[in-house]
Amino acid sequence: MKSKLFSSKKSSNRASRISDDFVELHKQKIKNKMKSSSYIIIPLVVLLLILIYLVSPMSRISSISINGNGYISQSDIKRELQLDEGDSIFKVIGHKNKINQRVINDDHRVKSLDFKFTGFNHLSVAVSPYKEIGYETRGNKQYLILENGKVTNIAVKNPNDSKMPYIVKFNNQSLLKSMIEKYVKLPKDIRDNIRVISYSPTKVYPDELHVYMRDGNRVIILMHDFNDKMSFYRSIATQLKTKSVINLEVGAYSFPINDEKKSSNTTTKASTKTKLKETLNKDAKKTTTTTKKRN
Fold first, then answer.
1. What is the pTM of this model?
2. What is the pLDDT of residues 151-183, one digit of tens each?
3. Please, are residues 100 and 111 in contact by the beta-carbon 8 Å criterion?
4. Nearest Cα to Cα of residue 123 among 57, 66, 56
5. Burial class (CB in 10 A: 0-12, 13-18, 19+), 144
6. Where do the domains of the chain lie, and which CATH numbers do they carry?
7. Are strands 218-222 and 110-118 parallel, antiparallel or unpaired?
8. I want to staple 169 with a disulfide (CB 3.0 to 4.6 A). Which of 109, 199, 224, 279 is the partner?
9. Calpha distance 292→295 (Å, rounded)
10. What is the rounded (10 degree) CA torsion for 37, 40, 45, 46?
């Protein structure tokens, strides 16, 4: 009797273990199926979400703001960007360098562009323009001369010639760039007083410049001496009693503009020449003394 009970219990335990093993095996199979299914389901869900995003308004440019454009109109930048509200944001993402290069090639005034998305789909464009230096005249149109020595390919509608000079007859770009570098180093009050810088080479002086001032005077000067001698302009101008031509090629002398075409100004030129020489010498000594003190 005891052996029958023991045998019954043993069979029951074996059946229980088999049942547990079967349950575990079933669970494991379910887990394996779910795991294998997840490799298919998750990518499909992600793909579905991407498709939903692509067709939703969130994937479209909601608005475009332009800042830092300075003297370049926003309408010009917007036209050159070739982007509109409602365009896909992927027209910008991955294509920033291409857009940047296209705009720079189309508009010489633009140094660089920086693109940034805020609030998912609002496009902000920061413009860095080249500094404007002056104007060049071609026919009856004016074009901006920039700090990099280039002349823009877009005519200026309303040139602000009350503040910037016309820099004319510089047909060589490297020469124009050199002139710009010299011009920007002048004191601001002298820069603001310059109306026209004209490259006027002669056989004797191949780098001769004629500088027309807003106060009515005209300066004849050599390009390689431009910064050194133009810095004395204030001292020279205060001595003049009338609008004059100031010749700073070799030495320094002046004569009234009204007498420019007359041939009997030898006495006037000679007397003024001495005064201007003294002025240049005094200013040169002051500059030297100031430099020594600083050192």
1. 0.67
2. 888 888 878 777 899 999 998 888 999 999 999
3. no
4. 66
5. buried
6. 58-129 (3.10.20.310), 185-294 (3.40.50)
7. unpaired
8. 199
9. 5
10. 130
Please tell me the distance from the alpha carbon of residue 12 to that of residue 291, in angstroms, as a whole number: 111
As a three-state string, the secondary structure of the chain is CHHHHHHHHHHHHHHHHHHHHHHHHHHHHHHHHHHHHHHHHHHHHHHHHHHHHHHCHHHECCEEEEECCCCCCHHHHHHHHCCCCCCEHHHCCCCHHHHHHHHHHHCCCEEEEEEEEECCCEEEEEEEECCEEEEEEECCEEEEEECCCCEEEEEECCCCCCCCCEEECCCCHHHHHHHHHHHHCCCHHHHHHEEEEEECCCCCCCCEEEEEECCCCEEEEEHHHHHHHHCCHHHHHCCCCCCEEEECCCCCEEEEHHHCCCCCCHHHHHHHHHHHHHHHHHHHHHHHHHHHHHC
Q: Residues, the chain, total? A: 295
Q: Are strands 110-118 and 122-129 parallel, antiparallel or unpaired?
A: antiparallel
37-95 confidence digits (pLDDT tens): 666 777 776 777 667 656 677 788 999 999 998 889 999 999 999 999 999 898 999 89
Joined tokens for residue 40:
């298919």
